Amino acid sequence: MIQTPLAAQVTQTLRAQGGRMTAQRRLILDLLQESDSHPTAEELYALARQSDPSLNLSTVYRTLNWLEERGFVSPRRFDDNHAHKHFDPVQPDAGHVHHFHCRNCDRVIEFSAPQVEQLLGQIRGEIARQHGLRVDDAALVLSGLCMDCAASA
Amino acid sequence: MIQTPLAAQVTQTLRAQGGRMTAQRRLILDLLQESDSHPTAEELYALARQSDPSLNLSTVYRTLNWLEERGFVSPRRFDDNHAHKHFDPVQPDAGHVHHFHCRNCDRVIEFSAPQVEQLLGQIRGEIARQHGLRVDDAALVLSGLCMDCAASA
DNA sequence: ACACTATTGCAAATCGTTTGCAATAAACCA
DNA sequence: TGGTTTATTGCAAACGATTTGCAATAGTGT
After folding, report:
1. Looking at A41, A60, A92, which one is the last position of a domain?
2. Which residue of A has its CA nearest to B98?
3. Are residues A124 and A71 in the same domain?
4. Based on the number of CB atoms within 10 Å of its own CB, is B87 exposed (0-12), middle (13-18) or buried (19 or more)?
5. How many structural domains are present in chain B?
6. Which of A113, A132, A144 has its CB closest to that of B136?
7. What is the pLDDT of residues B87-145, one digit of tens each?
């Protein structure tokens, strides 16, 4: 059986923990890996049902939570209002990535910017000292219109 | 009647739009203005009920939404998981503010960092060109432990 | 003071997500 | 290969945060 890298890695972890690789999980994993815009559970569910109409939404959520607990995806909310989580497949090798969120179509685009890393290094220390905080993480989120939405506007 | 700046401003807008300044709204506005850590609706509700036990949670939500629609507060989610909105009173004069979120006590601390503004100026153009995006806004969120939580850890 | 209608409290609905449970099906073993 | 074990599924019901319909209440301009 051909496996996408993600599915292969997950299968290993699964085996090691007495878990089982099911058709549903494989489907969800493959869709997650293909997708470039970090999908929400609903989006993944809609896609998955094209291949397996009997798949249940709660299975999608359970799979995503399982993946999250083991560090294979990380959830993010981009919309401050009625917000659903987007699931971001984690590439262990890639450094810190930042995100752009299209406020029209809800699509998410990843980018990395070395200058940002550098600045964050400074800022973190400075802010930490100034306010007495312990800064563990920094996320930069840009928002606006993606290429497609900008074109059709 | 003594009015906090926020309440005064809101009253003006209210009048201009045929709205009414009620005791509930005044209470919520004053608490919002006093509070330094951007409170959630529930937090505001709990505080407000100390003065007015008959206040209803839906009134808090309605007031916050009304304020949001007119640009007096802006909602933000900091926790990527089970997340509630925090409401951030908007100071028209202050420039772009960024946020620190304590992952232990959920407190939010504002800060401004001119260097970030500067960098964003560069990045925005670069990212925009590179990915064909139109970048309208940028938010930097730091997270970790606030002073109090860091001390007691 | 009166009338007009914006706003309230209440209860029920909503949205995204989670959970209990009995039925199903991977994985391990004879 | 078939049988056993138990992790995983589908379903329906529960969940927490937020929103809504509605009749009762109370600001505001006259």
Report:
1. A92
2. A140
3. no
4. buried
5. 2
6. A144
7. 888 876 667 889 999 988 889 999 888 887 888 788 888 888 989 999 988 889 999 99
